[in-house]
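USER: My hope is that you can spare some time for a protein that puzzles me. I am handing you a single protein, as its sequence and its fold in token form. Walk me, if you will, through where the backbone shape changes along the chain. The protein I mean follows directly.
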Amino acid sequence: MAASIQTREVSDVNERTHLLSQPITYGASAESGLAGDGSDSDTSGRRVRKKRAPTPLPVLQLFTMLTVQLVEPITSMSIYPYINQLISELDITGGDERRVGYYAGLIESLFFATEAVTVLHWGRLSDRIGRKPVLMIGLFGASISMLSFGLARTFWALVVARSISGLLNGNIGVMKSAMGDLTDSSNRADGFALLPVVWSFGATMGPLIGGTFARPHERFPMVFTGEFWIKYPYFLPCLIAASCGFACVLLVLFVFTESAPPKKRRSASYDSLETRVSSKQPPVNGLRGLLTYPVVLSVTNYATLAFLNISFNALFPLFASMPREIGGLEFQPSRIGYILGAYGTLCGAYQYLYFSKIIRRFGERKVFICGIAAYACVFALFPATSIVAGTKWQWVGLSAIIVLLALSDMAFGSIMIIITASAPCKASLGATNGLSQTAISIIRAIGPAFSASMFSVSVENNILYGYGVYALLFTFAILSLIPASMLPVELWEEADSDDED
């Protein structure tokens, strides 16, 4: 078909404009309106997708990917109930409980700091060699890391163990790419609705495993009687988490069928990403070609959400475990695990029952904005709950926090769908998710260390009566509504048609 050449300026941010390039050309017929590609044009020339009957989801493939996703929240969050106690027992702080936050935040950040170095390369590698081998490497690395963490008896051994996991793990980005391979625009809301559900289940099981099986010689003295369990009191929860990873290696090996078609694996490379709006479009090169307006805007919003989430994850165990005199609730690790488990259970049930319905009713943008707003309310409730610590009203505050977190978790499913739609083409989906996970890993590396350190600084210097960290995060959540409001009402059209072979 003959195609007239239309030139789009860089300022036309509604299209897939390369932010670092000169004006680019798109082969398209103005008369045809790109007929047959499953899209229409609105009055501004921006193309949006037609609604159609949902394509059936590939159940076994999705089940495998969702099971793989369980490993990361289990391995990363199982340490939360006992990490502060572990830091205290290693005598790193010299007996000063106010300094625990510095070191706990550092340990929690290390995984994401090291992951940021390699996750983009894992994503690009999955575009070349397929998702399956990269997933297996990540799962194996996570399992070895957990075993090493459980056997660590020095601060630097903990550092090395967490670093191993981050360096070898690119699974979240690759798994999301596989989900993008397995779904299309007609059923993506249904498929991605399951991701927060599974993450919530993992976020439930991780703290429950850590809180229940830490120090088993004390909790189950009739079973764990040897000197080994006294010397390594946190090895059992690490062993259980590592076993989940090893089991998933076998699941991927024998059940999962490679989701990236061979021709797409051939077309994607480290040096060239072929981007198409029609059948003929000039290729874009490497990382520079990924920096389109949709990708940058989507990743920016994902980063703000991740910062708020990881800051909560780092702060809550501190808030719950610290003495009441310095603004905490003085809970034991087992109780912290049960509370985090309740949070995960509620989030999972809510996502499973309502996410896809809410997305179809309100759209990804509105759901994401509501999720960010919910985090502002969560951080406002921390000091209120601290004030009533030790009374029945503390449970009212904690319940309100959990309910708001269930609402905020829907923002993750929303932004995942938006990022998938923002990819320049399906051949670059792994690289796009790798780029997003690189940004998120950097943010998540900063978040725990920053929030936990700010907790200690606020308490030590009595900033806003010790509640300065919550005021700062509340302000950040409010400011995060600005980029959230810039997201499109309608998703960008996928560069490759959904029914392309």
Observations:
- The CA atoms of residues 385 and 393 lie 7 Å apart.
- The beta strands are 5-8, 24-27, 39-41, 47-49.
- The domain at 59-271+286-485 is CATH 1.20.1250.20 (Growth Hormone; Chain: A;).
- The first helix runs from residue 59 to 77.
